[in-house]
Amino acid sequence: MIDLALLGSGGGMPTPHRFLSALLINYQGRKILIDCGEGTQVSMKILRWGFKSIDIIAITHSHGDHIVGLPGLLATMGNSGRTEPVYLIGPKGIKDVIKGLRVIVPYIPYELYILEDPKQELKFNVRDGRLILKDEYQESLTFKGYEEGDMNLSTLSLDHSSPCLGYCLNIDRRSKFDMEKALLNKVPKVLWNKLQKGGRIEYEGMVYEPSMVLGRKRKGIKISYIMDTRPIDSIVEFVYKSRLFICEGTYGEDKDIEKAVNNKHMTFKEAGELAMRAQVKELLLTHFSPSMQNPEEFLFNATSVFTNTIIGRDRMVKTLSFED
User: Fold this and answer.
1) What's the Cα-to-Cα distance from 99 to each of 73, 105, 106, 118, 265, rounded to whole Å?
2) Is 256 known to be catalytic?
3) Has this prediction a pTM greater than 0.90?
4) Is residue 196 domain-shared with residue 238, that is, in the same domain?
5) What's the gap between Cα 234 and its chain centre?
6) Which of 3, 35, 55, 65 is catalytic?
7) Are 295 and 276 in a shared domain?
């Protein structure tokens, strides 16, 4: 089960009823924050979603409406008792941006590991009560010996006026335990649970593999997050078959296409077309222009091409359950 909270649905500048871009994902009690615009902490406080358990912060790009809330959040996490390392992921140049923002937050009681413009898929495990990274970064981050991750985070370079990343979370599920298979392969019962969690085991002179006790693969959950970009073709493959596709809809009306092109954003219809081409299950529109007072008025522009589209609103919470 995955819980998500859209903390802010606005773009450009905050308004009285709409904070700026931020999405919080709760996975096995650990949290992943994508973007951190103004108002992020306020929405978290209203929802009573804690600060201490944020293990990963992923920033799409360095424009203020996606990152200005970060210094205060980092301080609040420390004040909440956070001492374990935090991973911060972002596009090219993010290290310099964070260095500048940290001028007003010179001390935090935890390590902040910054991963700039990662090209490969990042794999995470829930270990020791937090999300742990396992990939080529692990040696430099001093984490070693963890099993392959069950949450994979991928990035995609987008088409915006500054380096910008899209994010895709794949939450894997371990295959079902097959008792008949385990008995047929004469696997000692003491190893069943360990093998189900992955990794080969040597025991009493024999080698046992997870495949000896596991049955069919179970379906996971894919969540995609695309902000501040033109609708480029590479997005379609990147978000393909997403259970939830969270996409920017800066402009609601088709007549605003010239603004969308000039400012490198999207209209509702363009987002809907991406969702249709990518065969996603549900499209959630967000990042609305401050001039758009009531996004629901323009929902038809998206649903005319992709029916299962909803309008995001601040502090909207969704729960995604695994499907067998």
Assistant:
1) 15, 10, 9, 18, 28
2) no
3) no
4) no
5) 18
6) 65
7) yes
Of 212, 229, 259, which one is at a domain's C-terminal end? 212
Report the amino acid identity of residue 27.
Y
Residue 26's domain is classified under what CATH number?
Answer: 3.60.15.10
Q: Tokens representing 13? A: 């500048």
Give residue for tokens 């219809």.
269
62 and 183: one domain? Answer: no
Residue 66 and residue 162 share a domain:
yes
pLDDT tens digits for range 230-285: 999 999 999 999 999 999 999 999 999 999 999 999 999 999 999 999 999 999 99
**Considering its fold, how many domains does the chain have in total?**
2
Question: Residue 196 is part of which domain span?
Answer: 179-212
Q: Which two tokens stand for residue 288?
A: 């609305």
Q: Where are the alpha helices (DSSP H) in 24-153?
A: 40-47, 64-67, 70-79, 94-101
Burial of 107 (0-12, 13-18, 19+ CB in 10 A): exposed
Q: Which stretches within the chain are classed as H helix?
A: 40-47, 64-67, 70-79, 94-101, 179-184, 192-196, 234-239, 257-263, 268-278, 300-303
Same domain, 94 and 198: no
**Dist CA 192 CA 37 (whole Å):** 46
Local confidence band at 116 (pLDDT 50, 70, 90 cut-offs)? very high
> In what helix (H) or strand (E) does residue 270 lie, and over which residues does it extend?
helix 268-278
- Please indicate, yes or no, whether residues 162 and 283 belong to a single structural domain of this protein: yes
Asked if residue 117 lies in contact with residue 158, where contact means CB atoms within 8 angstroms, the answer is: no
Which residues have CB under 8 Å from 192's CB, separation 6+?
Answer: 177, 182, 213
Are 59 and 193 contained in the same domain? no
* 133 and 189 both lie in a single domain: no
Per-residue pLDDT of 24-41, as tens digits, reads: 999 888 999 999 999 999
End-to-end CA distance of the chain: 12
CA dist., res. 34 & res. 168, Å (int): 11
**Residues whose CB is less than 8 angstroms from the CB of residue 29 and which lie 6 or more positions away in sequence, other chains included:** 53, 126, 129
Residue 30 tokens, joined: 């650990």
